[in-house]
Design goal:
There is one protein chain. The chain is α/β, with parallel strands linked by helices. The protein folds into 2 domains: 24-121 and 247-288, NAD(P)-binding Rossmann-like Domain (Rossmann fold, 3-Layer(aba) Sandwich); 131-242, Rossmann fold, CATH 3.40.50. Helices cover 24% and strands 22% of the residues. It has 7 helices and 14 strands. The chain has helices at 32-41, 74-84, 99-112, 141-144, 200-209, 227-235, 256-268, and strands at 24-28, 48-53, 66-69, 89-92, 116-119, 131-135, 151-155, 171-176, 189-193, 214-218, 238-242, 252-253, 270-274, 281-285. α5 (200-209) packs across α6. The radius of gyration is 24 Å and the shape is elongated. The model is unreliable at 1-11 and 271-300 (pLDDT under 50). The protein binds NADP nicotinamide-adenine-dinucleotide phosphate (NAP).
Length: 300
């Protein structure tokens, strides 16, 4: 039974607290930043969190928040999902090279007038001693390797490996999380299945033992995979490095900490009570929720 304002009310003497509409945050993930943010937000009663993964990794690390897996069906599908699941704000914490989902998030949030924040890690910057050949995309790494056969440490993930089939003269050491399968049909391929973070010592040992003559990587930024860049510098190896794609111009912070602060300031500090007057809601500060002055509805 409910009272006139639609609030829970069991009848004679047992008032229930008013229903609180908790902000519900969608984190678009697949990165260390998304995992870090999920850990920060887990278990906070004033906020509801759903982490979304594309499903590229067969056994993703378990996260301490509700997790959904799989595409949404483009920008329109994402907009429908956001509306259908009552999402209050979206955090785009996807990888800097995941340009499509970032574009979809920008479009869907614009359509649905839902606040969007992106976590954009700074790219790695060239340091003294780095021998970088910077190119505009992963595909452009292939001609940058040149015609002379090399031993290539390929650390670009699995999805775009096939472009290197155009350069079968090289030997490839390919490090991926998922099996390479038939993604790169070249005569000399060594597969290494591993998930970062990696240490500088291990990266140097690996490159030395494998006789690597060039590293190929995306300029993904972040600390987790930076040791390979430092290892190449110390070993005097050239690095063919793909620059990230242009991403939508949206509000952004550089890390999970910044995203958590933004959420507190813009979203989680506001929880909604259904209006007593009906038709609409009113906003209260989350700080006041636990000690809310809202008594259960009194009988008249
Ligand atoms: N690209 C990389 O180098 C890289 C590296 C590490 C991690 N990742 C992570 O792997 C995922 C896929 O990367 P990508 O480069 O393939 O992305 P993408 O090209 O931007 O996205 C392709 C499609 O995958 C789906 N998708 C991507 N991220 C999703 C997410 N978090 N939740 C639900 N669906 C998602 C979307 O499908 P629908 O259109 O059907 O919604 C999207 O249109 C991303 O979440 C990214 O954070 C990527």
């Amino acid at each position: 039974m409910t009272n006139a304002a639609g609030q829970g009310w069991t009848g004679d003497a047992t008032p229930r607290p008013p229903k609180i509409l908790i902000p519900k945050i969608l984190i678009l993930g697949g990165t260390t930043e998304a995992s870090a943010l999920a850990k920060k937000l887990a278990g906070r009663p004033e906020i509801d969190v759903v982490l979304s993964l594309a499903g590229r990794t067969a056994a993703p690390r378990p996260e301490p928040v509700a997790t959904r897996i799989g595409g949404f069906g483009g920008a329109e599908g994402l907009a429908r999902w956001i509306a259908g699941n009552g999402i209050t704000a979206v955090i785009d914490a996807t990888h800097p090279f995941a340009a499509r989902i970032s574009a979809n998030a920008a479009s869907a949030c614009r359509v649905g007038a839902v606040p969007l924040l992106a976590i954009r890690r700074p790219c790695w910057a060239r340091q003294t001693g780095d021998d970088w050949i910077e190119v505009e995309s992963v595909a452009a790494c292939v001609p940058a390797l040149g015609e002379v056969p090399k031993t290539v440490f390929l650390t670009i993930g699995r999805q775009e490996l096939s472009v290197f089939a155009a350069a079968p003269q090289h030997a490839y050491l390919v490090r991926t999380i998922e099996p390479v399968g038939d993604a790169l049909p070249v005569p000399r391929l060594t597969e290494l299945r591993a998930r970062g973070p990696f240490t500088l010592e291990d990266e140097m040992r690996l490159m030395r033992e494998a006789g690597i003559t060039v590293l190929v990587t995306k300029n993904s930024g972040g600390a987790a995979t930076y040791p390979k860049i430092e290892a190449a510098r110390r070993l005097g190896l050239p690095v063919v490095i793909a620059q990230p794609p242009v991403l939508p111009d949206v509000a952004s912070v550089s890390d999970a900490e910044g995203a958590a602060e933004w959420l507190v300031e813009h979203v989680a500090g506001r929880a909604r009570f259904p209006s007593r007057q009906g038709g609409g809601e009113r906003v209260v500060s989350a700080n006041t929720l636990s000690a809310s002055a809202e008594p259960g509805p009194s009988r008249r």
